[in-house]
Design goal:
By secondary structure, the protein is of the alpha/beta class. It has two domains: about 170 residues, D-Maltodextrin-Binding Protein, domain 2 (3-Layer(aba) Sandwich), CATH 3.40.190; about 120 residues, 3-Layer(aba) Sandwich (D-Maltodextrin-Binding Protein, domain 2). Helices cover about 45% and strands about 20% of the residues. It is built from eleven helices and nine strands. Strands 1, 2, 3, 4, 5, 6, 7, 8 and 9 form a nine-stranded mixed β-sheet that branches. Helix 2 packs across helix 9, helix 4 runs parallel beside helix 11 and helix 6 packs parallel to helix 11. It is globular and about 60 Å long. The structure holds D-malate. D-malate binds next to helix 2, helix 6 and helix 7. D-malate (MLT) binds next to helix 2, helix 6 and helix 7.
């Protein structure tokens, strides 16, 4: 009898220790890193750079899965509802985890409640761009031209809820126009359409467009940050170009589903931190125009605070812009 009791208590202790053991060993298989937009776009680019380094740190592959639809909210809803075991995480951004709240009254998740923040990966300033043969020479001319010709103009974006949609919503509301909006599954394909001259203008994150601006494949009118970007020194800030209200900078960040055990979140946050301190990763992200978070801006706590403040900021902007159609 005594042997049986001892055996049973051993089994109970082993079962109780199993999750802790599993967390201690994490990750023991590949991690699914969901990108809520098309391959080749800004979110995908940042996820691949950072994910590749995290794979090396955690000695497991980070498999990128592009889950498309509804301005990134389809993927975000899926990850919010997935098993909180650290094997399904998402590279969210200012659209999916802030602006979407005001854009979708029936959003299937609350960015600040249904996710465990892991950390900010990169700041991504937003530019006002057009096809290369768009007539206006500078931002003042752009504003006048768009006002005068709006019924003929197409604006590309990556779906309601995306950064490109939200920041051009801000731009259009400042100018007082509602052009025809053309949604794509990401600004990767939207940029291809802009280069081909199939659409007239778009607002996009810097990491997607530096090379194309330098090669003259598209035009850049202004950047929505206080300072010019060191990688695009000839592009004026919106304030310099006469539109100071256009303040538009986005960010990419990693999130796990809420309920993910803290040791796993900490391990992911540690691996992200190592990636952001790695000279090779920093060089690649900086060359693309990203703004890298300093130590205080990294980790779960800083990201949790950022999400709250960004939901507030973009809700005000979107409400002030009025109805979408
Ligand atoms: C993308 O990766 O395609 C973008 O982040 C889309 C966007 O939000 O504009």
């Amino acid at each position: 009898m005594l042997v049986l009791v001892r055996l049973l208590s051993c089994v109970v202790a082993m079962v109780a220790a199993a999750p802790a053991l599993a967390q201690g060993d994490y990750p023991t298989r590949p991690v699914n890193l969901v990108v809520p937009f098309a391959a080749g776009g800004p979110t995908d680019i940042v996820a691949r750079i950072v994910g590749e380094h995290m794979s090396r740190t955690l000695k497991q592959q980070f498999v990128i899965e592009n889950v498309l639809g509804a301005g990134g909210t389809t993927a975000s809803t899926r990850v919010a509802k997935s098993k909180p075991d650290g094997y399904s995480i998402i590279m969210g951004h200012m659209g999916t985890h802030a602006a979407s709240v005001a854009l979708y009254p029936k959003l299937g998740y609350k960015p600040d409640v249904d996710f465990a923040p892991i950390g900010l990966a990169a700041g991504t300033p937003v530019l006002i761009l057009s096809k290369k043969d768009f007539a206006p020479k500078d931002l003042k001319e752009f504003v006048n031209y768009v006002k005068a010709n709006v019924s003929k103009l197409n604006m590309a974006h990556a779906g309601v809820g995306s950064v490109s949609f939200t920041t051009c919503l801000l731009l259009n509301s400042i100018i007082g126009v509602k052009p025809t909006s053309v949604p794509y599954s990401g600004t990767g394909p939207a940029l291809t359409a802009l280069i081909a001259g199939q659409v007239d203008y778009m607002c996009d994150q810097i990491v997607n467009v530096v090379q194309q601006i330098e090669a003259g494949q598209i035009k850049a009118y202004a950047i929505g940050t206080r300072e010019r970007s060191p990688v695009l020194p000839n592009v004026p800030t919106a304030s310099e170009a006469g539109l100071p209200e256009f303040q538009a900078s986005a960010w990419n960040a990693l999130f796990a589903p809420q309920g993910t055990p803290q040791p796993i979140v900490d391990r992911l946050a540690g691996a992200l931190d190592q990636a952001l301190s790695d000279p090779g990763v920093r060089k690649r992200l900086l060359e693309l125009g990203s703004v890298l978070p300093d130590q205080a801006g990294r980790g779960p706590k800083a990201l949790g605070a950022l999400v709250k403040s960004e939901v507030e900021r973009w809700t005000k902007v979107i409400q002030a812009a009025g109805p979408l159609e």
